[in-house]
Structures are given as C-alpha cells and as structure tokens.
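lol forgot to send this yesterday, sorry. struct tokens for the thing we talked abt
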C-alpha cells in the first residue's frame, strides 16, 4: 500500500516522470538528499523505468576525509497539500434459469479511498556541492567504489526529496454485499456482507519520492552531471551494462518472455499449482507482492545476505521451493518468479483484481491471445485497429467485460463494433500492455493442468 501511495503522489507532483517513488516504508530513510543510490538497467522490453536501490552510503562517506567534514546544507521549500478521494459502488444481478431450478445472484461492491497529505520539498544547495567538490576528492580505494567499477554500475546522488510534513494516516476500505436466491419447488436465500479496511501510517519526515543526479568520477575528481544518461566512470572505467535489446516489437517480447519464464514451464503440475496459489495471494495483497519482489531483487544483488521469510501461509510452498533447508536461494528458479512479480508490479490494483478473477474463471489463455493481437498493432500511429472477432467471441459477456476493463486500465480504449471491437492506443499504452502480457503469459504457464 505504501508503494501505491508514493507512485500516485509522484505522478501528481511531477508528470515528467523524473520524481522516483520510494518502494519500501522500512527503507525510506535511505533516500534522503546526499544519499547514494545504484541503478539497475531495465533489461526488459516492458519496464518503463529503471529501478534504484539503496547503497547505505552518503556522498561524504566515499570522499577522502578533509579538514572540514561538514555536509552541504539542505533547504526546505514551502509545503504542498495533496488530496485524492475515491468513492464508488458497483451493483450486479445474474440470473441462471433452468427447467427445475432458478438461481439468482445479486451483489454490490463499494470502495472508499482517502488521501490527504502535506509534503515539503527538500534539496541540496548547488553552491555547497560545488564547494565540497573543490575541497574533497573521491576515495578511489573505498571498497564500495572499487566494487562499482568491477560490476559496471553507475552511481547517483539524491539531490532532492519529497517528505511528509506531518504524520499522516492513509486508509482504503471496501465492502462486498451479496445474496443468493435458489428455488427448487420451495426456495431459500443466503445473504452476507464482507468488508475490509487497510490502513498505513506515514511518519513525519518520511521520504516519499526523490530526484537524482549522476555522479561522475574521473581519477580522484568527481562532479554532478545534469544529463541523466552520463556514465559514472566515463572513459576511465567500464560503462554500465546496456539495456535489453532495442527490438521492442511483439516478436522481441515473445522471445524475451519465453526465455525468462522457461523454468516455470518445466515445473511439475503440483509445483505449478503451488506457485499459482502463492502468486494469486500476492495479486490480491499488493503489499505481499512488493515485499517478495524487493526480497528477490536483494537476493540477486547478494544471495548470501538474503533470507526469504513470510508470515503468510499462502507463500510457504513458494518460499520453500525457492531455497533449500540451509537458506540458499535457487536463483535459476527465483529469476522467472521475480520477472513475473516485476510485471505484476507495473499493473494497477484494479488490473490485479481482474487478473485474479480471470484465473478463477480460467480465461487467461484467451486473454493472452487477445492482448498479443493488440500488441501486434502499430499503436504509435494512433489509428483505430480491429480485434479478431474469433478472439472476442470466445469470451462470454461477463468474461469480456473483465478483459475489456483490464486492457483499458492499461491505456487502450476499446469500442464495440458489431460482433467485434475496435481499439485505439499509443506508445505509453503499448508499454503498459506489455507488462500485462508478461503477467498473463506466466499465469497461463502456471494454470496449465497438463
């Protein structure tokens, strides 16, 4: 829930996308101005942004000690209040007639989500950074700096952050009401209500988002670049590993997803079912998804320092499979799981809920083909395209509504045109749809009964 809050906030405050949301409430203190972060290359055809990871170091920690060890000043801006309230209700009635039995299912679902938070922008004074640059050199013998050069990684310094001005409580509540009326000569009815509420408390001064600048190192000299693609070591050291192949078409995506999910296709039927159960649990509880995704990302950075644990019983089988009795992580199997979780993490909560519905209704394979057909379109032309009538007709009306809503939440607009649909989208929608395709592909593999 914390990452959902910070992602929404970053979008509201900066539409250009350069404000990076903090993923974890526990780690938020590691993303203050002057902290150093590393960047992981996207390496996939569907991720729209790089991921940035804490290093545990501040800029002054990797500089040669000087006579004046003061840190540059950080200044505050005026406070900003961000408000966002959502309140909605959906009702439905389904009648299932039969010669002897008439069943009627009615229900309603309502959601309420409230957000109001005061934030402030804190930033490093550029003049102080320039002064520090002239006074102190980079410690090239520092083990962290040496390790960066060997691993071909770039380094970034946080120059600006958005912090909570006061303690704030966010809440999200939902209520589902339903009844079943069943008549077999005589009739009986069942009624019920189920509600849930999720609350998270954001502490005062909590870092919610941040901006970065590349740190440039040449011999012992260093500087801050204003160009985001500049390399830390330049010609003096190895460049950061490049992103994934530029082939962003459907064929490239198909090759990528088949390669990344190959291990999932080799699982036994029993293990596929256990993995599917765990992933559905994370789809329903986005906090679980984010927790395990971060754990696996840490495992790929340093498997010896990561232990996979969770108090949720639905994750037990998955975690036991990903590591042996000594706690050693099977990176070959953890890789496709992380790849799947990263794709799921790109989807909205509403998309995730519809994805869970789709698995239950066993329509994932049909949706996979439908999304694939859309991705074959040249969306950047912004011209309307037609969907294959056979793909559309293979879905029942309720299944089609679920699928249509899930796709449209990714930015593609669909309109009924007789027995089929026409659609429109753009490049941004294409990126979002690719993440949905990856998620559907992985769930399709895990849903197979053969």
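and heres what i got for the seq, position by position
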């Amino acid at each position: 829930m914390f990452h959902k809050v910070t992602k929404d906030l970053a979008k509201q405050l900066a539409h250009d996308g350069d404000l990076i949301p903090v993923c974890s409430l526990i780690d938020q203190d590691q993303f203050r101005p002057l902290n150093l972060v590393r960047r992981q290359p996207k390496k996939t055809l569907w991720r729209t942004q790089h991921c940035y990871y804490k290093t545990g170091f501040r800029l002054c920690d990797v500089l040669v000690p000087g006579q004046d060890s003061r840190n540059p000043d950080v200044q505050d801006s005026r406070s900003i209040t961000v408000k966002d309230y959502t309140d909605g209700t959906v009702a439905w009635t389904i009648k299932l007639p039969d010669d002897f039995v008439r069943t009627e299912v009615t229900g309603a679902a309502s959601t309420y989500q409230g957000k109001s938070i005061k934030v402030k922008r804190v930033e490093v004074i550029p003049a102080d950074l320039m002064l520090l640059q002239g006074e102190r050199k980079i410690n090239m013998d520092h083990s962290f700096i040496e390790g960066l050069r060997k691993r071909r990684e770039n380094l970034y310094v946080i120059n600006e952050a958005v912090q909570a001005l006061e303690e704030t409580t966010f809440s999200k509540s939902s209520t589902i009401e339903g009844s079943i009326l069943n008549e077999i000569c005589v009739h009986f009815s069942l009624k019920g209500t189920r509600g849930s509420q999720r609350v998270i408390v954001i502490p005062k001064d909590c870092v919610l988002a941040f901006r970065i600048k590349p740190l440039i190192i040449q011999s012992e000299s260093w500087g801050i670049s204003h160009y985001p693609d500049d390399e830390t070591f330049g010609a003096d050291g190895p460049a950061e590993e490049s992103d994934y192949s530029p082939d962003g078409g459907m064929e490239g995506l198909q090759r990528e997803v088949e390669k990344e999910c190959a291990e999932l296709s080799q699982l036994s039927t029993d293990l596929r079912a256990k993995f599917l159960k765990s992933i559905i649990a994370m789809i329903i509880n986005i906090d679980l998804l984010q927790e395990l995704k971060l754990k696996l990302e840490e495992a790929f950075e340093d498997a010896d320092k990561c232990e996979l644990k969770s108090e949720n019983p639905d994750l037990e089988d998955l975690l036991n499979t990903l590591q042996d009795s000594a706690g050693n992580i099977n990176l070959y199997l953890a890789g496709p799981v992380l790849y799947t979780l990263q794709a799921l993490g790109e989807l909205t909560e509403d998309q995730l809920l519809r994805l869970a519905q789709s698995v239950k209704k066993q329509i994932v394979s049909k949706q996979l083909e439908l999304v694939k057909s859309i991705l074959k379109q040249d969306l950047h032309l912004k011209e309307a395209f037609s969907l294959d009538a056979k793909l559309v007709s293979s879905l029942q009306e309720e299944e089609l509504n679920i699928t249509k809503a899930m796709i449209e939440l990714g930015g593609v607009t669909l309109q009924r045109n007789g027995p089929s649909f026409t659609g429109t989208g753009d490049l941004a929608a294409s990126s979002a749809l690719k993440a949905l395709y990856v998620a559907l592909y992985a769930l399709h593999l895990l849903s197979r009964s053969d």
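The chain has two domains: 2-236, 250-447. anyway ping me if u want another try
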